[in-house]
Amino acid sequence: MIVSTVSIAFPNRIRQRRSLFIFILGAVILIVGIAALLSLGGKGTKFDTAYDAHGDTGAFLFGSLEQGQSYSVLQTFWLFAARTRTLWMLGGLALMALYVALNRTLLYSKSIAPYVFVLPFLMTFVIFFVYPLLSTTIMSFQSIKSDSSEWIGLKNYIDLFNNNTFYTAVTNSLRYTVITCALLIPFPLLLAYMLNSKSMKFAGTFKAILFVPVLSSVVVAGIIFRMMFSELDGAMMNQVRGLFGLDPIIWLKGEWTAMFAMVLLCCWRWTGMNILYYMAGLKSIPNELYEAADIDGANAVQKFWNIAWPLLKPTTIYVLTISIYAGLAMFTESYMIFGNNSSPKNYGLTIVGYLYRYGFEKVDKFGFASAVGLVLLLGAMIINLLQLRITGVIGRRKGE
After folding, report:
1. Per-residue pLDDT tens digits for 324-367
2. What angle do CA 222, 225, 230 make, to 5 degrees?
């Protein structure tokens, strides 16, 4: 039996080695197609039109030609590869699939199976993260116009850091992030602890009520909050002020009152979600620990402080991480509350709103918007890495 198995496996290995060049060739062709796609920097449609019309493709690759000049053989080949980039990628994938079809035993190999299962994630990661990131990085060093692009080096970044509106957007986003994190961690934690208590009555009803805002549309919620914070005397928040004998104010034209409106909308929408996270963390704590604390005579506060809070540290770190990301990425809430991306004195302008302003509302500023996006990505990564280092998630030594 062993001899027959070895005799079958040996020819299979020989076939795999002999046909390996098909897989390598397919991988090379696929890489050429991907590289050609990246080299166009998001201008594939316009390049195709110029190439098919035998027009000047110098605005896209290699620069414009002077009179009497011509592209080299390598440049001509690359222009052809860029035009047929889709065929190159499909051809590379077809050759790699042919290699697998010729060696079907690979599908049953225990050493190959993990890579096959991971492949969909890797392809999704490369297509929807790595490629856009590389393309955005290239565009951030360019001045992109409707019909051409020009390499301008660090000019976009220099203009960005010399723009006072950018610092206003950064200040608003950081202020919003700090306030929302300060509210959306302790209060959902306490509410979850109360709802998880056996003595809590109608816990299921309260859970449903608190989670309903999560299911609401941010567009609808933003419009409702805009009406609530209207400058009219009959607006809800001005009526609340009237109950305390205070005069109506123009909420959305004040720096801190506008921030209060955005923070209140955030807390209204996401408190229920954070309660859900903490409820899941509390359910994972063994009841034996609470029973032992009861035997020792611990009260509810002592049980929370000495049992629940330490064991909920992983949940808290996760909630803090996503809250930082959500705070820095906030845009729709501000847009809907103010009705547009132009709030009074930029009180509601965030980093993403600043990016949207130059990427979509202005003409020929897409390269500048790409620089804004990369700065936002880098800033969010640095902030999250710092908080992960402070909380001990990364950089912790073994045994600590």
Report:
1. 999 999 999 999 999 888 888 999 999 999 999 998 888 788 88
2. 125
Structural class in CATH, domain 160-390 = mainly alpha
Instruction: Please state the φ and ψ torsions of residue 144, each to the nearest 5 degrees.
Output: -100, 120
CA angle 12, 17, 19 (to 5 degrees): 95
Q: Which sequence spans correspond to the domains of the chain?
A: 12-139, 160-390
| Tokens, residue 367 | 């390269």
Q: Which amino acid is at 355?
A: L
Q: Which residues contact 99 (CB under 8 A, 6 or more apart)?
A: 19, 20, 22, 23, 26
Query: Residues 277-305: pLDDT tens digits?
Result: 999 998 888 888 888 888 888 888 888 88
Q: Which residues have C-beta within 8 Å of that of residue 253, sequence separation ≥ 6?
A: 231, 344, 345, 347
Q: Are 17 and 99 in contact (CB under 8 A)?
A: no
CB 337, CB 252: distance < 8 Å? yes
